[in-house]
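Progress narrative, work stream C.
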Amino acid sequence: MRTEIFINHGIHESRIAILEDGRLSEIWVERPENERMVGDVYKGTVTAVLPGLQAAFVEIGHERTAFLQVRDMIEADKGDSDGSRNGRRSRHRSYPNIQSLIRKGEKVLVQVTKEPISTKGARVTTQVSLPGRFMVLVPGGNWVGVSRKIASWNERRRLRDLVTKIKPDGYSVIVRTEGRNQSDREFKRDMKQLVKNYDRLTKANKKAQAPALVHKEMGMTSSVIRDLFTDNIDRLVVDDKELYKEITAYLRQVSPELRQRVEFHRDRRPIFDAFKIEEEIEKATNRTVWMRRGGALVIDYAEAGTFIDVNSARYVGSDDQEENNLNTNLEASREIARQLKLRDVGGIIVIDFIDMNEERNRRKIIDRLIDEFKKDRAKVSISDRVSEFGLVEMTRQRVRPNLLHTHSEPCPICSGTGRIMGPDTTLTRIERWLQRSYAATREKRYVLKVHPDVASYILENREERLKSLRKATKARLQVETDTSLGPQDYRFFSTKRSLDVTAEFRV
């Protein structure tokens, strides 16, 4: 598989795209007003301890307080690791009561593991770690872990021995996958820089008054170069001259052999247009995803999770319906893995596959999903069977808001539901308002302001209904249009009191 990275560096927005065999597989967006937080370290103040949740809230200086669970205060397993920030912690592990570990008003050093999403604040841990190119430094302890992706037993032993010799006391280390086959020279350089960074963090923590940021993780571009630009990447193309120089200078020190794979985009066309990435990004926010054989996915987001419906749509196969359903579901499995990774969808995901009668075919779907998600760097858990209703439940690690939330905001009219009240429903709500008003005050004269479409609907299509309403409530209505109102909004102004009285009788 050919893998390429493209970097579009702009004044107001930087974007990084990863293409696999010419198809967009991942996209990251970073803006000055919304920089990534994962990896940042804060000196915070505990504002509340909740024994029932085994969690605490920590003030770190943001709009919403951060959330700290008891399991994020306990040292990770000391064995092998995949190189992730927090190592491995079992959900079934027994933990002490959080009251014994932390108290309200206490100053704590915490690191962000998940960015704020929707109404939730950032997720944090007290187990601070600093990632380098070849290893992750974990202050405290005295153990060495090796990425599970390094399969060779001899190489794992070599890396353990190497790191154990160069590691200072009081630090634990996780060797990352990129550390495979690296010499002691590279590890020593990486270790020196990480220890230096932690010393700087410690000094900043002593001086800071909570809440305060004491360590800022690398920006998006730098972290991608550090974490992802490896021997598995065929080329990296960047459209900014200064950034190109910075990347090549960094690689000259850590991986000189990769410099020849870095290209500066000289085409006059914007880089994402030249490589047809822009149109792929536009498609990535669509509700419906069309597959190559005519099937389709419909992706809906909700507070509780993400729901995906698989449809045969325009797919035309054999006369065997079971075989057609299987083929569509198998193609959908591959596309679902791609879409969830591309859109950066996390949390609970429910997939409604096309019904299949044979158990062996349902097993094929699960196997295909598991196989496709092996390529995903996020942690994924998939149910071991297709339910009798054709549903598959899964979870995917959520670190930051998904692509749709990054590129959009909730509709101010429909509040993100995608639907609004029809004019007939709006008229019914107006009738009920007038009935309440008449029962309470006997006031009769009002100016009614509505959206132009609603005004037209009332005056042209429902004039008889309005006349009946006036008769029943004795109201004297003057209907006016207001383009600032949504189709389901209305405003009542009292002629007698010369003020907006809508809220007085609105439920």
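Work stream C, second folded protein:
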Amino acid sequence: MNEINKTKNFYTLMCLAGFLIILLPVGIANFVFGYMLGDSPCTLCWGQREAMIFIGVMALFIVRYGMKGKYLAALLIMTAVGLYQSFAHYGNHAHRDLDQGFGLAVFGIHTYFWAEVVFWAVVLLLGVIFAFAPKFNAFEAELNGEKFRKYTKFSLATVVISAIIVASNVFQAFVSTGIPPYVGQGDPVRFSLNPKYIIWSTDGWKGLWQNISFLGKRDVKAPDYAFESASEKLGIVFDNDSQNAPFAKIDENLQITSEQNISFDKPINTLDFIGGEFVASSKFDVAFMDENFNIKSAFELDPYFSATIDPIIGIIPYMQDKFLLMGSNKSFLRFGKNENANEVLQYADFIKGADKFEGQGKDLGRGRLDTVRAKFHHVASMTNDANYLYLATVPNNKNAKDFIISKISLKDRVLSGEFSPKAALKEGKTLGDLYVTSMAFKDGEIYALSKNHNVIAIIDIAKEEVVKVISYPSEIKNARSLFFKDNKIYILSYQDGSNKLYTLK
């Protein structure tokens, strides 16, 4: 086959591809879904449909005016735009339960996912077409000095039919969304030609240019840790005055009975007393210490293997002789002690200590917790009872009002419930004023230690209510951990460059 014939075949394939993307996804969506079934595209749906139209039109431009770089560039750019839109659309709904999608479905799959398929199909077809394309100088030779190529019966028919489909979409868009400044809707009503049911709205412009970020609503700054303050980036001013707490009254005031410095070379972010040992963590370092705070064993976590684990915010006992370590991003590691651990196998989880600890094996390993109300919050504390573990959110730069406790089954690590505790609060205040850095479980109640305002909220799990509020002295300036030992309350604070452990009553 000579190059001129290969060129003609190339244009035939390009014409067919451009025609099919306008005829099938765009045409069916317009005529069948729109006029027959009453589907009215949302804003993102229109964006995806427009991208498909641009792709098809650019393909027909190539067929008419020849293979030019600017047309190919426009085609690829619009494919990228369409992929972005469809991915964003699909991402908004992919997490939903069975049959909770948005809009109409084809073969059980909703249109926003089919859009993703269409745009990837464009990429694939372009690759196939250009794999069999002629030499580039053949395009100029085939054009033979003319400004545009002559229509064949097939190419003319595709242009006419495509023009009708595009015009019909323009009409539907005008009816359902209006003209600028009116824009589409996130949840449009059923398509109708009856003016009584037509809604034109400008609500889509509200807040459009505020807080622009590549992460959008996921642009949540990292929480405050003992090893790294985050007050400025979170927009939170911490104070140690319990009188500024959001609660209507303080029921009890704790007093310091003793104080000691813990000799540890890093800021301790979490400290607990488990099975006769102190368990401390700092970012990705974990140490098991005796009652005199001498280190018995330790490891450094590899945070990036498998499920990424953000800095450690809590360690709890798990399945009698094991432990569960939680990161602030709600990713976790189930690990255990083993003096004869296989260092090669455990290399995956530990930078140091792989010969003394196990993260790989039966009933061990990493995982992620899926939350609902707390999805856009970090957690800074964890505790557990016999059946569940509990996580508490901390305020952030996006949401400084909500305080949510998540309840997760220890058996299968699946979310069992989430609640915002009831509480007697000052007017205009919320539990989001707290900054809970530690929780401890005792007698059916959670003791939630707030670094901000130096208070401990005692939460009845069954009632989902704050039943008592305790203050602790303002001398404790950066409270990180609360635990019980020998029926005494202990609070760890990293301040003045030291890890200080306070005993209170």
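The chain has a mean pLDDT of 95. No further action is required on this item.
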